[in-house]
User: Fold this.
Amino acid sequence: MSAAISLSASFSKHLFDPNQRRRLPLTGTRCALLRRHLVGKSIALSVCCSLLAVDKSQGMEMLPFKEDGYNFWTWRGHKIHYVVQGSGPPVVLVHGFGASAFHWRYNIPELAKSYKVYALDLLGFGWSDKALIEYDASIWMDQLTDFLSEIVKEPAFLVGNSLGGFTVLLTAAEKRSQARGVVLLNSAGQFGDPNKKSEKTEGENAIDKFFLKPLKEAFQRVVLGFVFWQSKQPARIEKVLKSVYINSSNVDEYLVKSITAPAGDPNAGEVYYRLMTRFMKNQSKYTLDSLLSKLSCPLLLLWGDLDPWVGPTKAARIKEFYPNTSVVNLQAGHCPHDEVPELVNKALLDWLNSNSSELKPSSLQTV
Assistant:
C-alpha cells in the first residue's frame, strides 16, 4: 500500500478526534461530498499527514533505503517486513496510515545506539503483504502481539505515529504484559461521546440490497480507483509534498521511493479500497478513553503542535484522562519523528532511559 494513500473525511471522522480536526461542510449531495473530500483534499492531506522529512543539511545518520526491504517474518501465511538494529532493551516502532518502517529513517540509527530497535510494516502497508482480508484494528493488534512473542520474544517499549500510535495503544491496553511503556506521536483515535445515541441496525430491504448498495459500491470503486492511481504517481507525489512541506528541500528521492514502491503491488489498489470503505466503518468501538482506562504502563506523548488534524488539545486531554503521562510539545506537524527527528530522538531517549534503567547494564550510556 502506497504511503500516498488518501486520508479521506471518513478516515478522519473515525480515527481522529472530531474536536481536533478541521470540519468539512455538511451541505450538498453525498456524491458531491465524496468527490470534494476524496479528490479535492485527501491526496494532499494524506501525504502531509503521513510523511514529513527533515532537512538533509542536518547531516543525521539515516537508515539506508533498500528496494527489497530488510527482514521478513511469516505471520498467518503473510509476509511481514521489519527492520532490526542495535542491542539492549527492545523498542518497537510502528508507522502511520500509508507509511512503512522506512518512515523511521532518522530515528532507528540513533535509538539503536542504546536499544534493540524494531520497525514493523503493518499488514497491508509498506513491504508487508497486501492481504485481501477484512481489515480491522484488531488485525494489527494481533500482528503486533505475535511479533512481540515470536520475534522480539520479550515485552517492549511500543512507539507509534498516527494509526501506528492507535495500534500500539490498543495492544498495550488489551495485552498489558507485552508493553513496558507506550509512546504516541500525534496518535489517531477518538474519545467516546457519551451523548451520542447508539445507531440502530435494521435489516436491508430488497431495494437497498440489490440496487442501492451495489450502485454505491460501484461509484466508490470508480472514485477511489482514480484517487489511488493519481496519488501513486511520482511526479504528483513530489508536487504535493513540495506544496505542503515547510522546507521543500526536505522532499528527496528516498522519501518519494518509500511512497511509490509499495503501490506497485498488484493488490495495492484493492487493499486501499477495503481500507477506505470497510475498515473505516467499525472504528468507533475503540475509543481512547476505553483504552486508556485499561492501560497500566508509563505513557509519553511527543506531540507536533502544528498538526492540522490532531492538535495539542488532544494531547492535553489524554494526559488529563491518564495522569501517568509525560508530554513533550514540538513545533512540528503530524509526523514529528521525521520532521524534527533530533528533538524527538533526544526526548524519546531521555524517557526510555528513565523508564528502563533497571533493564540496562550500568555501563551502557546513551550517545
User: Anything to note?
Assistant: The chain has a mean pLDDT of 76. The radius of gyration is 20 Å.
